[in-house]
């Protein structure tokens, strides 16, 4: 693009916006270590790059032999311990279902040039930044050609919205293999738009620009095959180029053939290469690898696309409102689920103004509208709705909005410019609030959030609103239905993410209390004899009743302390503990707590408390988390832990005891494999280790866990104990075998924390560690 002097300031401002957004993308993608190229492959695209460069179509990482030994390696339950999640397994090798274009364009060339593997987070940052730069070139070019009298700040605002309000910026949050092809396709589509606008205007090089647009679209197809739905938009610049090539002659014949070959020749070439790749890998041109993907559900019988889903999924992509709360970021959206772009990105509504026929830009409007709508309907027919799929069509909608804003400002007036500014400002604000809750490093934005929440805290004080234990004074119904359960307190924002305390009438004079956690089930508490007046005082402490860590109430707290506080679950009745444990309740705001009924309670039995709620009181907040013992054991002694396992966990793992340092460390962990079921295992860093069988636990009572690891040995420890791992739970031996350990001092032992970053477990044990004592190994 030739930059005239009058456009220099506009171009510089756009460049500054692109650089600022690129910095934000890198900041959100992770620490410097995550963005540093590596000498060895360490992620999906790294393995595929290594595979391609070594001359094979499979990835460089071999499957676990135990996976290949299974009678059905595609069984999601049987393969869970051995699979690499979302890799495609075919004939004993791993393949990558995700598009190969990122390897061809970026990852393999950089490996050949530098000898290093570019990690997936950095690849996403690179594609998004270059894509935004292409979007800036596109918008500057469009304004100078079609809307030259529109203020230049409208272009700068449009680029800022594309970079900061578009859902593509969220691709940098925990960027992995899933985000790389989406970011790549985004970049290529914006490059294709730059080529298209020049094809529409160029007199001499229209065919070359059209071929460039076709090449970008074809490469995007290799990154994200669903972009095939958007290829019809190439017809618009194609027809314009036909007229330009034909001049005053006939349109059909040679001009049409030349333009068609330029536009769709690269698309056909890329598509053929993709089908050939499928055939060479899986013996079928139509098989991309999704059928043989190792996921949480068996993919073999899954219908990936169905037009019948559009009526359900399309409204979620456009109008999913989420919920609002009084605490920053105020807007709360379901994790990983799409949010309504029509609601929270009002800039796209300005695109309606771009649909008004006008000379020159109408063809460009058609290009964007066809591409956006084609991808939107295809994505809406997919079997699942996912937030990142918004990136397939939303950037085009935002660019349509930018065309509408430029058209609106083409004949500037205060009213028109005010409309553009208001729509742009509200869209930027929405983008900021959405990014604030999705940002990878919540620690970095916590000071800002706490400052913004001071107003909410002040309002709480003015209303005398407390955040401590919830106390209910209730009167039971005189003649309850025996065996029936009724809600007392419910919290949570969604039907599938809620918790509630319920009362069950065991007999006319005995009731019990249970706590229900969606996705887990009931946690049973004790039974209570009903007094003669049938009145009870129920006190409840749970995480769903507490504000977020950004509330000034938790100023000075770290994330671990806040999580331990939120995980406290305590129910007392008439001053007697009825249920006590730890449970990670779902987050909820003040408007998401319901007393004596379920959310949206109707007239069905059990949806309301049939007694009376006499009084509801919130007590002043006071910390309830117990101190976590961390005193190292004397050399040569085992540890006896009194602990309560966290309730509500059905997957993942948490640390119990770590010894050593860094990559020369050993970690004993408990893995949650089902409701109230765990497995104990040891991670000898880089090698794994012994594991126990699956055992049942009770998250409402105290367990005794006795641990001996050879790394706890002292100078007088018998040699036979130096390589021994012994784990007992409540007197039952779970593990007793020979295990390698890294040399360690007993003083390096850390209880309940994963300080060395082992990928096997979370950062901390989230149950309750009540006490630790030393046990002589001679007594074991």
Give the number of helices: 20
Query: Which bin fits the share of residues in helices?
Result: 25-40%
What is the average of the pLDDT values?
A: 90
Give the strand content.
15-25%
Q: Which assembly state applies to the chains in this document?
A: single chain
Name the shape in a single word: globular
SS-based structural class? alpha+beta
- Beta strand count: 24
- For the record, give the distance between the C-alpha atoms at the N and C termini, rounded to a whole number: 79 Å
Tell me about the biggest sheet? Answer: 5 strands, antiparallel
- Gyration radius from CA atoms, angstroms: 30 Å
What is the number of domains?
3
Could you list the spans in which at least 5 consecutive residues all have pLDDT below 50? 1-5
Strand order of the largest sheet: 12-11-10-5-14
